[in-house]
Amino acid sequence: MRILSWNLQHGGGSRIERLSKALVSYDADVILLNEYRHNKAGADLRARLTEAGYAYQSEPHAEPRQNIIFAASRQPFEATTFPGQLSDPELGDYTARVLLVRIGDLNIFGVYMPSMKFKRPVFDFLLRLSERYLTEDSLIMGDLNTGRHYEDEAGATFVSTSQFEALLAQGWIDTWRSRNPEAREFTWFSRGYNNGFRLDHALASPSLDKKVEDAFYSHKEREDGVTDHSLMILDIKSPIY
């Protein structure tokens, strides 16, 4: 099973054709998209993915200009959103930033973090997830907008690094870092200062991490201007679901 995560950059706009071609070329089973939007570009992307075999799609409700999380799959899945009035009031305006996709016994939390201090409620939500997810095959994947100081950035500017570390302390495993302990790759660069940051992550439960065959980034699309983020791919032993 291949799972792909990518930030579209404000819905994709006029880049939808290039984005969709790149997405399809990786032949993923599950696609998680950050900064998806409910607008004309979003509808175009959904149609292109459907034509490519991704018949099962889901996203939280949101206004057309709001950047949210989106999931598409070749296999049927059960999708769960987290509207604040029903499940977690502290998510507030960020309920469209988390989407749970369940395929067989695999739990995938697609996450798109806000920036700066606004990501804290979303991290708190993840830190309060039921402990059962760590005992099952589970994954937290997406643009977490955070990482470790001096490892995932040159300096120490990240907000909520302590919450990112708290997830790891709970038992979630940074799949890419655990396989590349000395490497440094960045998935987004600031335009003003050209500083690099690794913002895109896949955190696996211990049982799922043992089944991960590869975790890697593709930077070509970002370097070619298709969007401003590198994409991330996770390959998991198959068939398991």
Keywords:
single chain; 241 residues; alpha+beta; Deoxyribonuclease I, Chain A; six-stranded mixed sheet
Summarize the structure.
The chain has 241 residues and is of the alpha+beta class.
What would CATH call the homologous superfamily? Endonuclease/exonuclease/phosphatase
Helix content: 10-25%
What is the CATH class name?
A: Alpha Beta
What is the 3D shape?
A: globular
Query: How large, in whole angstroms, is the Cα Rg?
Result: 16 Å
Strand order of the largest sheet: 3-4-2-1-14-13
Largest sheet: 6 strands, mixed
How many DSSP H or I helices? 8
Number of strands: 14
The computed structural class is: alpha+beta
Number of domains: 1
Q: What fraction of the residues are assigned to beta strands by DSSP?
A: 25-35%
Give the low-confidence spans.
none
Average pLDDT works out at: 93
- Provide the CATH architecture: 4-Layer Sandwich
| CATH topology category name | Deoxyribonuclease I, Chain A
Distance between the termini: 9 Å
What's the helix-strand series?
A: EHEHEEEEEHHEHEHEEEHEHE
Domain Endonuclease/exonuclease/phosphatase: 4-215
Keywords: Endonuclease, Hydrolase, Nuclease
Protein name: Endonuclease/exonuclease/phosphatase family protein
GO molecular function: DNA binding; double-stranded DNA 3'-5' DNA exonuclease activity; endonuclease activity
